[in-house]
Amino acid sequence: MKTHKIAVIPGDGIGKEVMPEGLRVLEAAARRFGIELDCTHFDWACAGYYLRHGQMMPSDWFETLKAYDAIYFGAVGWPDVVPDHISLWGSLLKFRRDFDQYVNLRPVRLMRGVPCPLAGKKQDDIDFYVVRENTEGEYSNVGGKMFEGTERELVLQESVFTRRGVDRILKFAFDLAQSRPKRHLTAATKSNGIAISMPYWDERLALMARQYLEVTWDKYHIDILAARFVLSPERFDVVVASNLFGDILSDLGPACAGTIGIAPSANLNPDRIFPSMFEPVHGSAPDIAGRNIANPTAMIWSGAMMLDFLGNGASRYRAAHDAIINAIETILSEGPRTPDMGGNADTSQVGTAIAAAL
Ligand code: GGG
Questions:
Q1: pLDDT tens digit string along 292-344?
Q2: Under CATH, to which class is 116-257 assigned?
């Protein structure tokens, strides 16, 4: 039996609080389904390695992590001490780029037992994926400053859209749409205002669509698309978006499905040359950190996605994934619940309950 080497990076803030619950449930699932996991912990965080060394990770981080099958990541950010762009570009974004995790796959689902904040929507009405481009686009450090501190101060920031980068994320999204019963793809754009990169994105989209005749597709400008998430989420199946638009939509989607505390994500290197990374959509949430009240569900669900990816189609791993989702839904229906879901349970109580429900 293969032993999967997992690099565990809890990170900062509530990342440190939800990670033990993620591991608790992973261990329970691994025991039940006969999966071997070998976890190694790294304290690469603002309130960890950074405080001692002035950088987020050691310089040999790439070689170190390359030896792992997956990265299980909590959250990054301690803005009172380290500016967010330093911590993000010093860890999370390095993983995504250097390990070519070009797909950020973010399921948006109204889970059983979660009251929907949108009037009149049923469980089946919210069940789609946001496929976020994860290595280029608006997330760039290309640009510069001139005339700093003067009246003529000028700040320039470029977006980067490559043919390879655009085509591969569109292909992943169309493949996913083709594998689902609805077979529908929606693309986010803003080609009326962003006059070079977004028309290019639209052009590549239309070309890619020609190869997927069984998939129906449409595209919306990001502003009206955001409104449609709230007004009619049932129209979506697979939503593909550039890095920034995908980031925004994948916070908005889970908010429409109850709470961002349950939203998982998978940063995938689909070619499996480098480790993929699994993390909650939420960040380190400094406002509630240290109180043990964060919802651990997103961390736990991300662990389920990790098992499924590690299994690469194997039924035992798929069964482990499904059992975790079922345990999450049981506890969301029957409690205990954290305060973001109207309950008064703490993080550990919810994690323990989900592990027991397995
Ligand atoms: N667990 C995700 C996390 O720590 N997110 C912090 C954040 O600000 N991420 C920005 C991004 O995902 O692009």
A1: 999 999 999 999 999 999 999 999 999 999 999 999 999 999 989 999 999 99
A2: alpha beta
- CATH code: domain 1-102+265-358 is 3.40.718.10
User: What pTM did the predictor assign?
Assistant: 0.96
- Find how far residue 22's CA is from the centre of its chain: 15
Query: Is the CB of residue 133 less than 8 Å from the CB of residue 241?
Result: yes
Question: Cα(279) to centroid of ligand 1, in Å?
Answer: 9
Q: List, chain by chain if needed, residues with CB within 6 Å of any ligand 1 atom.
A: 75-77, 88, 92, 247, 279-280, 283-284
> Quick one: three-class SS letters along 125-163?
HCEEEEEEECCCECCCCCEEEECCCCCCCEEEECCECCH
* All structural domains of the chain with their residue ranges: 1-102+265-358, 116-257
pLDDT at 289: 96
Q: What is the pLDDT of residues 186-213, one digit of tens each?
A: 999 999 999 999 999 999 999 999 999 9
Q: In the numeric block, which tokens belong to residue 196?
A: 């070079």
Distance 72 CA to ligand 1 centre (A): 14
| Mutation pick for ligand 1 pocket among 16, 85, 86, 88 (CB with most ligand atoms within 8 Å) | 88
